[in-house]
Write a structure and sequence with these properties.
408 residues; mainly alpha; Hydantoin permease; 17 helices; 80% helix; transmembrane; cadmium ion transmembrane transporter activity; symport; membrane; Manganese transporter
């Protein structure tokens, strides 16, 4: 099998969940708990692979995204209205709020790489804007504007590979304790680690990636291959891209554990991690970490608005112009949030609550959809249903705990 077939729509998922939120969460996990939460990372990657395989298979067999399938299969008006409201709240409104964090995180990486240039300071003082956010938002617009799936996929493959190189190289420079990483595979919950575990899993297993993957798979393999061949290529794609995302997250966790755990140092964000590496491990580690943060922020700044647009298009049958307007509006909101140092805590809280409700519902819907007659010979087998049920149970526990903490 050619190398190109190893990377496809699953790379969009990796680009989506390896964003500033994941970098911050993995950094805090490593800084505060060392390697003790590696098991939670392994679980989250495994659960993601199970769900994303179902989403990709649904897209390939039906030729439609998750939103389209949701609209066709959920016919009861009250249930459909509730589902639509949750998707819009969790995916569209939520991604608008998160987009500010994506651009802010990418800006932190750019600042660590190139510092406060005089022309940037002058422009910021004159306009009041975060110039890095504007420039990076413009790059996201350029990538998405032509609407060519192949171009978007290639851009994100490049960003994921660059992230992998940056973060894994940083980890190797810091010389991690591989025996401690192995010990962290055994499940344990250190004191005060519950919130971090929820965050680590919650930043990887997210509903909007299912919309993104199903639509991407339907687009990539529509009318181009036989279904068995497309499913074979999709499986190779998932086995390559999703674990690669887990390796990137592990590299960040490991770097933070080496730099901070047991040293009595405090870390507030991923930017702190990049800057703190220089006195410990040299300037190369700082630059690599900062470059990885920049690539992570930019990749999520492309995928978050795209996922929201896919979800809304499937549910509401948007035209091509409306589809473009959706992702463009989300990028503009993100630039505004990042530029004016807004802290949309209420919106993000609202989105997190909606995500907590939506994730097990979407997981249940996926199980229903991939077992429906429309899947014919490509329905779930017994093992896939068992794994799906296990992930559903985990999402219910995760969502219940998240909602309890949100309202407590």
């Amino acid at each position: 099998m050619r190398f190109g077939l190893r990377f496809g729509p699953a790379t969009l998922v990796t680009a989506a969940f390896i964003g500033p939120g994941t970098i911050v969460t993995a950094s805090m996990a490593g800084a505060n708990f060392g390697y003790a939460l590696v098991w939670a990372l392994v679980f989250s990657v495994t659960a993601t692979m199970v769900l994303q395989e179902m989403a990709a298979r649904l897209g390939i067999v039906t030729g439609q995204g998750l939103g389209e399938n949701l609209r066709l299969l959920v016919t009861q008006p009250l249930l459909k209205g509730l589902m639509f409201a949750l998707v819009i709240a969790a995916v569209v409104i939520g991604n608008s709020a998160y987009q500010g964090g994506n651009l802010t995180g990418a800006s932190l990486g750019a600042d660590a790489l190139w510092g406060e240039q005089q022309w940037l300071l002058a422009l910021k003082q004159h306009t009041g804007l975060n110039i890095w956010a504007v420039l990076l938002g413009a790059i996201a617009v350029l990538v998405l504007w032509r609407g060519q799936y192949r171009l978007i996929e290639r851009a994100l493959i490049a960003l994921v590979l660059l992230m992998s190189l940056a973060f894994v190289s940083t980890m190797l420079l810091t010389r991690p304790d591989f025996s401690a990483i192995g010990a962290g595979l055994w499940p344990s919950i250190p004191d005060n680690a519950t919130l971090t575990i929820i965050a680590l899993i919650g930043t990887t297993v997210v509903p909007y990636s299912l919309f993104l993957h199903a639509a991407g798979a339907a687009t990539k393999w529509s009318g181009q291959h036989s279904i068995p061949l497309a499913l074979k290529q999709s499986a190779a794609d998932i086995r390559t891209a999703i674990p690669l995302g887990g390796i990137i997250t592990l590299a960040v966790l490991s770097t933070a554990a080496t730099a901070y755990f047991g040293r009595g140092l405090a870390m507030n964000n991923a930017g702190d991690l990049a800057l703190s590496l220089e006195p410990l491990f040299g300037i190369s580690a700082t630059y690599l970490m900062a470059f990885g943060l920049l690539a992570a922020g930019l990749s999520s700044a492309i995928t978050a608005p795209l996922a929201a647009a896919y979800a809304l298009r499937g549910l509401l049958k948007l035209s091509a112009g409306q589809f473009r307007a959706t992702w463009l509006l989300i990028i503009l909101i993100g630039i505004g949030v990042s530029s004016f140092n807004m802290r949309p805590i209420t919106i993000i809280w609202f989105a997190q609550v909606a995500n907590g409700i939506l994730l097990p519902i979407i997981t249940l819907f996926l199980l229903f959809a991939v077992n429906s007659p429309q899947m014919a010979n490509y329905r779930n087998n017994l093992l896939q249903n068992i794994l799906g049920a296990a992930v559903l149970a985990a999402t219910l526990i995760l969502s219940g705990r998240s909602l309890y903490l949100a309202f407590s």
